[in-house]
Give the backbone structure.
Amino acid sequence: MSIYQFRVNTIDGQEISLKQFEGKVLLIVNTASKCGLTPQYNELQGLYETFKDKGLVVLGFPCNQFMNQEPGNEKDIQSFCELNYGVTFPMFAKVDVNGVHAHPLFVYLKKQTPGILGFNTVKWNFTKFLVDSKGNVVQRYSPTTKPLEIVKDIEALL
């Protein structure tokens, strides 16, 4: 089992298979536009620009489950990310990451890398999951871990 079995909706509404990212190192992040951690978009974009030619893809999944910090629709989110942070990495439709309506991808990611004390929930916006080029989830990072702090882990997988 790997992440390649999952299908997701892009931010512009197209359903795709994550299999299209096979052979790439992925950094999957649940994002929000009105969070104190939102400036992490800058570092996520920087990572993407620095390492995309070496095989890294950042995947952003907006989520409104944490204090309603992603209230807009997909068009609003896309515009915000492009205008304020120059985001060019793939963004997806809003998802739930916890609870009964959690997207199956996040159910899988959480199961593969339990959080602190083994809890199977995403703690907050900007939780990051690092996936190797074979689709194996190798690490979960807390929301406060800045993207640039995981460069060595990314480089080890590229």
Observations:
- The chain has four helices and six strands.
